[in-house]
Amino acid sequence: MAAEKRVVFRSAWLPWALLTPQIIIIAVFFFWPAGQALLQSLQQSDAFGTSVEWVGLENFRNLVNDPTYLTSFKTTAVFSVLVAVLGIGISLLLAVFADRIVRGATFYKTLLIWPYAVAPAVAGVLWLFMFSPSIGIVAYWLRAVGIDWNHLLNGPQAMALIVMAAVWKQISYNFLFFLAGLASIPKSLIEAAAIDGARPWRRFWTIQFPLLSPTTFFLLVINMVYAFFDTFAIIDASTQGGPGTETKILIYKLYYDGFKALDLGGSAAQSVVLMFIVIVLTVLQFKFVEKKVNY
Amino acid sequence: MVERRPTLGILAHVILITGVLAVALPLYITFVASTHTAQEVVQSPMPMLPGSHLVENYTTALTGGGAGAGSHASVGRMMFVSLTMALLITFGKIAISLLSAFAIVYFRFRFRMLAFWAIFVTLMLPVEVRIGPTYKVVSDLGMLNSFAGLTVPLIASATATFLFRQFFLTVPEELLEAARIDGAGPMRFFKDILVPLSATSIAALFVIQFIYGWNQYLWPLLITTDENMYPVVYGIKRMIAGGDSQNEWNLVMATAMLAMIPPALVVILMQKWFVKGLVDTEK
Lengths: 295, 283
Prior knowledge:
The complex is a heterodimer.
Chain A: H1 14-40, E1 43-45, E2 52-54, H2 58-65, H3 67-100, H4 105-113, H5 120-131, H6 137-144, H7 155-183, H8 187-195, H9 200-211, H10 213-230, H11 232-237, H12 250-260, H13 264-290
Antiparallel strand pairs in A: 1-2
Helix pairs in contact in A: 1-13, 2-13, 3-7, 3-10, 5-7, 7-10, 8-9, 10-13, 12-13
Chain B: H1 6-33, H2 38-42, H3 54-63, H4 75-106, H5 112-121, H6 131-140, H7 147-155, H8 159-170, H9 173-181, H10 186-197, H11 199-214, H12 218-223, H13 232-238, H14 249-269, H15 271-281
Helix pairs in contact in B: 1-14, 3-14, 4-7, 4-8, 4-11, 4-13, 11-15
């Protein structure tokens, strides 16, 4: 695609007038706050905000030496890997089969994409209700088969709860991308392999799966970003980081430290770390998109 | 498909039906819970068939007459706040992005690339990572508990600008040449040619942004303290407080259904544009 137009309009002021609304909004609500976060991360202020002093990188040093922060990092890593791997695995399975069938594909598609519309907070509430130890129907079924479900006390169960809620909400998104990816694989390749005697299972692993790798990689990044940030509402609506700090992922800790514990410097430093992580993920994604395999 | 394999065909349907049912189970349980009385819902196990209190529960939830331990604000009002917020974000983003993408693609001016990158970089940082300072800006501007505070900071992102830029680059040059020969100025070209051509992209963005706006949680949580300004997605969480038996789960679940219906309708009814837009935006 051409990155530039050959023919353009000439005007000294009009482009700026057109850009003004967006520039004002991003300056006030994006660059200024992001700059403030950077500044605050180098400062220490008392709880009343009366004195501010420069402390250099001390906030970051504190973070690195804070065992709860490192735990939160680990929790986030476990959570995001589980969400990404399960979400991608399940939706790939569904997409491969949906791509196979001829009749009823639209029907299945419609019934699989609607959770995209569900708010993470609502997803959290629904799963909380189903798994509530005292009244939840699924917790009741689990007890019937001998599993004592209580995510209020059991850390791994609380983690399982938020992973399920997060994956449930994200499947539709991954599914759509895999479906689009599968549709773009030339049928002739698959037919040629079939003529050579490759069975469906083998065709999947030697043709479809490798050719889907750009989509898979893209979804990996997107799902990581989703697990890092968008799942805040799921956690706040269901486990609130508990029991203890078992499900306190980084974004939840950032919110908690900044708005509940009022540790401005520390939470600003956490913001900066998170910004850095997002930037790395985004750059990775764009690097990859540019080099996208052409076939 | 390439060859006939009846077993595999059946397997495909079995797996897809399992998937559909697994995905729909939470929805079904929510619906059933929203049609019973509070006492019936907290029985263990709760009933698995719809009850007879559907109209009653939804009316109570909408008007806000609940008696549970949490908030009893009117869900009707919350739905109105959510709808206004989602629409303001959607139209705000589409409007400012059309203008700025037009400026970036169809004009040459100094600092054009700087402007492009300044907008583009906002793609990288979701509002969540800069909540503290953004909250302070909004509070200093006196925008807490207002629709402006709920929406404008969320408009500050470049997804839409980026999509329109990509689309404008694919518009044939001949259209602009022809328009110029016919004497059309830039705004005339924008209004009569470019915007109508962008209808599909606008529809796709409408779906994506509407859902983005409707589903906002962390931001309203921070900047609204007035029950009258709670969007439904945040309000529903406020309805849960204390132990399980103190909540009116039937009303909570009715609210959950109400909170899901508008965005789900938008996705399902506009499926065609939504799927195209989603796949295109991210590429």
